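Form 7-S
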Amino acid sequence: MKSLRNRLARYEDDHDRVDLLLSNLGLVERFPEATLEVLDTLVPDQLSKPWTWFSLRTLLDQIGEQVPELRDDARYRRLDHVAQAANR
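Output:
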């Protein structure tokens, strides 16, 4: 995972592909912590497209349902803040 993380850059233009890979293929349920790591790598501190927050919110909710302790993780809290800010 660390090797993959080092190669990824923060972006939001391909969030549909990220949704497909993480959510539709069931990776969130199977690998919630790894999913959180990928999201933390890909999601910038501010979303420029207002509609992208919904996808992020859904993925975060799925992660929190699978492993409630991850809601206290700094990566989860950062992403939660990004999702809340984008919804304003």
